[in-house]
Amino acid sequence: MTSPGKTDWLVTAGLLALSVIPIAAGTVRVFELGIGTEITPKNARFFAVPLPFVLHIFSATVYCVVGAFQFNASLRRRKLGWHRVSGKILVPCGLVVAFSGLWMTLFYPTGIESPEKFDGPILSAIRLLVGTAMAAFLCFGFAAVRRHDIARHSAWMIRAYALGLGAGTQVLTHLPWFIFPSIQGEMARTLFMSAGWAINLGVAQWLIWRWPH
């Protein structure tokens, strides 16, 4: 049987692994902006207004990596101040992730190359809903801890992290997209993107119900 401490570290490792591909992809894109790579229809919007994208990638990297350790109960027990100090970092980073994502959805033009060319109005509306929900969850969680309501604080923060980690799960939900190119289209893109957020939020809610304390 796996010990609780080992299980905690397995959960942290799993969350970090889920973050690797989107963080790596975003870092490569930021590097391209820095060195001035060739401008294409796929990346032109980032070169036109790079700041929201750079803020989004930087804050998402911190949010996903540091946030993964918040799920490690054994670490929290040994480092009593860790949770509070890291929380002061995570809440601002999470809000930057949410608001920069909203800005990019509202104001960045859609590219014309795959897969961006399949980002339709329904997916844009879902992105706006997810970004707004993530920001709201973080605010609810912060308000709850100010009231010393730890149970609700934990629940809201778990939900917010689940949405923030959506890009990691979307790598998995997009596997059929790459395996079967014939299914590519606006509806498939919307379904695969939405599935990533829905799965994460469903798992988060299961955790909240499973461990109400």
Summarize the entry for a quick read.
The protein is mainly alpha-helical and 213 residues long. It is 79% helix and 0% strand.
Secondary structure elements and pairings:
Elements: H1 4-35, H2 44-48, H3 50-70, H4 73-78, H5 82-107, H6 121-146, H7 150-164, H8 166-173, H9 175-179, H10 186-210
Helix pairs in contact: 1-3, 1-8, 3-5, 5-6, 6-7, 6-10, 7-10, 8-10
What does this molecule look like?
With 213 residues, this protein is mainly alpha-helical. The chain has ten helices and no strands. α5 (82-107) runs antiparallel to α6 (121-146) and α6 runs antiparallel to α7 (150-164). The longest helix has 32 residues, at 4-35. The two termini are 23 Å apart.
Q: What low-confidence regions span 5 or more consecutive residues with pLDDT below 50?
A: none
The biggest sheet amounts to: none
What percentage of amino acids are in beta strands?
A: under 5%
Overall pLDDT metric: 89
- The N- to C-terminal Cα distance equals 23 Å
Structural class based on helices, strands and sheet pairing: mainly alpha
> Any idea what the radius of gyration is?
18 Å
Share of helical residues: over 70%
* Inertia-based shape: globular
Give me the oligomer status.
single chain
Helix count from the secondary structure assignment:
10
Helix and strand succession? HHHHHHHHHH
* Count of strand segments: 0
